[in-house]
Amino acid sequence: MNWFSSIFAAVQQWLFESFIQPVAFALGAGNLLEDGYAATGWLVVGLLQIAVMVLVFGTAQRLWPVEKVTDRHAIRVDVLYTLLHRLGIFKLMMFFTFEEWALQLFGVLRAHGLPTLQIDQIWPGVSDVAWVSFLLYLVVFDALGYWVHRFQHRFHWWWQLHAVHHSQRQMTMWTDNRNHLLDSVLVDLVFVAAALLIGVGPSQFVALVALSQLFESLQHANLRWPWPRWAERMAVSPRFHRRHHEVALGHEPGRTQTHPHPYGANFGILFSVWDILFRSADWQGGYQATGIDDQVQSGRDYGRGFWAQQGLGIARLFKRDAGLSRRVGQVRSSQ
User: Fold this and answer.
1) Model pLDDT for residues 199-226, shown as the tens digit of each residue
2) Disulfide: which of 88, 186, 290, 320 matches 315 by Cβ 3.0-4.6 Å?
3) Helices (H), 100-225
4) Where are the domains of the chain?
5) CA distance 310 to 179
6) pLDDT recorded at residue 88
7) pLDDT exceeds 70 at position 242
8) DSSP class of residue 178?
9) Alpha carbon of 38 to those of 8, 50, 89, 235: distances in Å?
10) How far apart, in whole angstroms, are the C-alpha atoms of residue 168 and residue 151?
11) How far, CA to CA in Å, does 248 sit from each of 152, 257, 278?
12) Biggest alpha carbon distance in the chain?
């Protein structure tokens, strides 16, 4: 991987010196150059991800689609979410707000004796190898991602935000980043805190996030691509994850006694082994329609555009989405 790292570093340096640095000096923000260099790295990663998505996943979607694309507006909104997250815009906003506070807090805690849990040292000699260390962190982060995702469905207040993600009825490779911004803030803080606690280096953190994001884009793809049974028992396939998005399989607290999965199933991020281990795997179904039960049955409005989705998410959190839905409908009908 040394050749890839060298090319990546060269592209990052060129982009920083050619564009980011001149803009920073022009805006009088020369003191933020170090942060700008880190942001440039996220930008390069995002561009690479989008290139793979468009060239590889996009081609596969056209060749082997699950369903015909009928709502291009919904997909365009998902593209906006993807650009916001993958090009480092959201990450940059997080760094200058919540992540900076987290760094300061951990600095204070470390000054008072908080240790760093160096999990890559638990296997002396072997875990010193770079790729073994990376795999250890990947497994730990994936286990954490499983439980965060499960809590997003289990806690009613968190579901009100996470429902933005599940309200997409035209699921494609762009759907992964369709999340309420407050939901994304909470998830990001959990993983940043975990990275600081177990000693993940900045470059490792970027690689872990980038790999997970790319694989999650594949899982959400409008792709009829069956995997062998053994492979699906190891990694999360598009079919396995589509089952997670099926109507009436997301968050049904009122059906706890009758529904086999009242709070959802198939929560795995990369590895399906967590669902098998903690008995949340559901191998039924195939390529059914996606969405939320009350969205389909009673027409509950989860928003068509970016701002409507964000506003309705906050309204649901405070149980005021009915009034906001009416106002959104009035604005839409007047256009």
Assistant:
1) 787 778 888 888 999 999 999 999 998 8
2) 320
3) 100-111, 130-154, 156-166, 181-198, 202-219
4) 2-223
5) 9
6) 82
7) yes
8) -
9) 13, 19, 12, 31
10) 20
11) 16, 14, 21
12) 68
User: What pLDDT is stored for residue 111 in this prediction?
Assistant: 72
Q: What is the CA radius of gyration of the chain?
A: 21
Which residues are within 8 A (CB) of 43 and not within 5 positions of it... i.e. 6 or more apart?
15, 87, 88
* Exposed/middle/buried for residue 215 (C-beta within 10 Å: 0-12, 13-18, 19+): middle
For 264-298, how does the pLDDT look when each residue is reduced to its tens digit (9 = 90+)? 999 999 999 999 999 999 998 778 999 998 998 88
**Number of C-beta neighbours around residue 32 at 10 A:** 14
Say which residue the tokens 């009825």 belong to: 169
Residue type at 171 in one-letter notation: M
Band (335; pLDDT cuts 50, 70, 90): very low
- Express each pLDDT in 11-21 by its tens digit: 888 888 888 77
Which amino acid, one-letter code, is at 76? Answer: R
Q: Give percent of the chain with pLDDT exceeding 70.
A: 83
Among candidate residues 187, 174, 273, the one with its CA nearest the CA of residue 219: 174
How far apart CA 270 and CA 213 sit, in angstroms, is 10
List C-alpha distances in Å: 325 to 167, 198, 316, 333.
14, 43, 10, 12
Number of helices and strands in the chain (H, E): 17, 0
> DSSP characters for 207-255?
HHHHHHHHHHHHHTSS------HHHHTTB--HHHHHHHHBTTSS--GGG
Q: Is the pLDDT of residue 333 over 60?
A: no
Token digits of residue 281: 């795997």
Tokens of 290: 């996606």
Cβ atoms of 16 and 37 closer than 8 Å: yes
Burial of 307 (0-12, 13-18, 19+ CB in 10 A): exposed
Q: For the chain, how are helix, strand and coil distributed in percent, rounded to 5?
A: 65, 0, 30
- Best CA proximity match to 47, nearest among 178, 214, 193, 201: 214
Joined together, the tokens standing for residue 37 give 């260099």
The mean pLDDT value of the chain amounts to 85
